[in-house]
Amino acid sequence: MKDEIPAVSAGGEVLQLVCFKLAGEEYAVNITSVQEVIRVPAITPVPQMPDFVLGVSNIRGTIVPVCDLRKLFRLPQKPGNGLAKILILEAGRARFSIIVDEVLDNIKLEKTLIDPAPDVKLKMEKACISGLGEVADRMIIILDVSKVSEVINSEIDKTRV
């Protein structure tokens, strides 16, 4: 990861975020939701799962589903660049992981500097976006890990019918 960017603050509550690239865009999640960042491990496919669930992986003795947000949110697919990582995330008691193209850095961003998701048609569920932040001429899409977890579980439940 690159060096941490200094906090952008106007005196209010500050969020600490882990930034990553996915399909050429910059995304971030709250650092409190990130359990670990690891290299891409061996992934065991699971039959009859949605195509965005790549399979499961054994992470320190715990079986964790590995999800591809590109497929879930219908983002452009691209060949790997060798920089891909897995973010192990936790939302409540649910633990899952996502594969990202590259982990960029950790940033601190004042909550008042985060704009709501725009009212335009998006490829991903708008509820999954907690806001948009701008840091040093970078536009960062901030994901709500709890909502992403809900969408993942909802899509998996559809395949069980």
Which CATH architecture is right? Beta Barrel
Residue share in helix: 10-25%
Whole-number total of structural domains: 1
User: What's the overall geometry?
Assistant: globular
Please give the number of β-strands.
11
Radius of gyration (Å):
16 Å
> What is the CATH topology assignment?
OB fold (Dihydrolipoamide Acetyltransferase, E2P)
Strand residue percentage: 35-45%
Classify the secondary structure makeup into a structural class.
mainly beta
Poorly predicted runs are: 1-7
Q: What is the top-level CATH class? A: Mainly Beta
Helix-strand layout with pairing:
Layout: E1 14-22, E2 25-30, E3 34-39, E4 53-59, E5 62-67, H1 69-72, E6 85-91, E7 94-100, E8 102-110, E9 114-115, E10 129-135, E11 138-143, H2 145-159
Parallel strand pairs: 2-11, 5-7
Antiparallel strand pairs: 1-2, 1-8, 3-6, 4-5, 6-7, 9-10, 10-11
